[in-house]
Amino acid sequence: MSEINDEANTDIEPAFVAQRYINLLAESERNISEDSTIPETFAEEVRSRLAEARDFLKLEFRNCETHKRTKLARQVIDQLNLEINHLNSFA
Fold this sequence. Notes:
Layout: H1 2-34, H2 40-61, H3 67-88
């Protein structure tokens, strides 16, 4: 049973980490939206980090062997792109 769990964790771990990163950055974006005293340079930093996360995911999943992992990677990358577009609307 441990092997099955380890196998499952291998498939989702990078996406889980990326999702956590997305959530933290989305929280920062919400803070920017709520506080007009936050400088634009901070918003730029958030956008930069989202782009870095997206690029990391693209590299991480470039050579996926299974359709399941590839599909999962595409879903997370799509979500990152939505977050970046949302942040860009504030720029």
